[in-house]
Design goal:
The complex is a heterodimer of chains A (about 190) and B (about 240). Chain A is built from 3 helices and no strands. Chain A is mainly α and about 190 residues long. In chain B, strands 1-2 form a two-stranded antiparallel ribbon. At the A-B interface, helix 2 of A face strand 2, helix 1, helix 2, helix 3 and helix 4 of B.
């Protein structure tokens, strides 16, 4: 069995030598097959070791570094973005708070001023009223006083006129009563 | 000049013959271009990772774009569990890409246009993925051959098809890359030959084809590296996340 396989291979090799010679295909000439395989293995192993041990780790490192750098930068940018957004929110909150505070202050001031104005007005009004009352009383007093003095003058004049006319002393009290009733009738309506 | 468009794929020894018994491990032009490609990658990665800057320089940006491109490819197809295999997929993708691109330079040699090179890579992936599958899931990994929701009658047939498709993964993976590279470069060479043979009179048409094909081949060079890497991811996904 083994022998027959070997003969077959030998036959194929022999045949291929003939084919190679006939068709001119150097690829089928087994003369340098072993040499080519040997050198291929040597060269390829050397290349593989160089690539696997030196070059690929280097390229990998370079690409990895770049990806890491990009990722770090993106993270940093996101972080900064978040910070700035927080700041903006804080700023807007501050503005809103201050706006409310301002409105409150304005309202309070308005109210206070209103109150103040009202108070002052009231005080002034009361004062004016007092002054008016006082003046009224004074006027009334003056009126009363003047009435009394008018009655006195009228009594005096009346008694003097009657005395001069009649040459008689008249009862002072009756004169007073007459003047009083007359003045009440005439001047009283004026008071 | 080499009229034969296949001459560009010739492998020849450079320097002394290195032999261990019957095994010839001599340094060849294929080995040289593997070394050149690996050196280009190393120098590029060295300068692109030398100054680690927060705002990347242009060269640093390229390596980071490459890193993210492969990382996204893996996470999209194989999920987070495939993270430990990232350096391998990255190396694989970059190595195939640079080998393909170096092969686009005139007078250079395309390492990936040799079936043995792509087969070694595909076989290594196939075996590694199978081992990972059995290590992660034990014998339950065999359930990858038995899709769920299949009628019982069809199950034996489907299972056989699944096994065949699983076993043909290294073949399809390696042949896809090898054939694309070889066909593209052969075609370029053929059209280049036409330019020479038709001369100043009729050479303009194949020349314009040649220019267009060069653009196409650069696209193919990138695409095949991408396909190789993404298929590796998909196989890895099958081994890591066992569900059907």
């Amino acid at each position: 069995m083994k022998l027959s396989i070997f003969t077959l291979i030998a036959l194929i090799l022999g045949q291929s030598r003939i084919i190679a010679a006939e068709a001119g295909m150097p690829q089928l000439n087994p003369e340098y097959w072993l040499s080519q395989s040997f050198w291929l293995v040597i060269v390829f192993i050397a290349l593989y070791v160089l690539i696997a041990k030196f070059f690929i780790p280097k390229i990998k490192l370079s690409i990895g570094d770049r990806e890491r750098k990009i990722k770090d930068d993106l993270d940093e940018a996101n972080k900064l973005k978040k910070i700035s957004e927080d700041k903006i929110a804080e700023y807007e909150k501050l503005i809103l708070e201050n706006k409310n505070k301002l409105i409150k202050i304005s309202n309070d001031t308005k109210k206070k001023l209103d109150l103040d104005i009202q108070k002052k007005r009231k005080a002034i009004e009361t004062q004016i009223q007092n002054e008016l009352d006082k003046a009224q009383i004074e006027i009334n007093n003056l009126k009363k006083e003047s009435l009394t003095s008018i009655e006195q003058v009228a009594e005096d004049i009346a008694s003097k006129v009657v005395e001069d006319l009649t040459n008689e002393k008249i009862n002072q009290s009756s004169v007073k009563a007459i003047v009083s009733s007359t003045s009440k009738k005439r001047i009283g309506s004026l008071l | 000049m080499a009229a034969n468009p296949m001459v560009q794929f010739n492998v020849y020894r450079i320097g002394p013959e290195i032999k261990f018994g019957n095994i010839d491990l001599s340094f060849t032009n294929a080995s040289l271009f593997m070394l050149i490609s690996a050196s280009i990658i190393t120098v590029f990665l060295y300068f692109s990772t030398k100054n680690k800057r927060l705002i990347p320089s242009k060269i640093q940006l390229i390596s980071e774009l490459l890193y993210n491109f492969v990382a996204k490819m893996i996470s999209d197809t194989a999920g987070t569990k495939a993270k430990p295999y990232f350096p391998f997929i990255f190396s694989l993708f970059v190595f195939i890409l640079v080998c393909n691109m170096v092969g686009m330079l005139p007078y250079s040699f395309t390492v990936t246009s040799h079936i043995i090179v792509t087969l070694v890579m595909a076989l290594f992936i196939f075996i590694a993925v199978t081992i990972i599958g059995f290590l992660k899931h034990g014998l339950k990994y065999l359930s990858i051959f038995v899709p769920s929701g299949v009628p019982v009658v069809l199950l034996p047939l489907i299972t056989i098809i699944e096994i065949i498709s699983y076993l043909s993964r290294p073949v399809s993976l390696s042949v896809r890359l090898f054939a694309n590279m070889m066909a593209g470069h052969t075609m370029l060479k053929v059209f280049g030959g036409f330019v020479i043979s038709l001369g100043l009179v009729g050479g303009w048409l194949p020349l314009s084809f040649s220019v267009a094909l060069t653009g196409l081949e650069i696209l193919v060079a990138f695409l095949q590296a991408y396909v190789f890497a993404i298929l590796t991811c998909i196989y890895l996904n099958d081994a890591l996340n066992l569900h059907h």
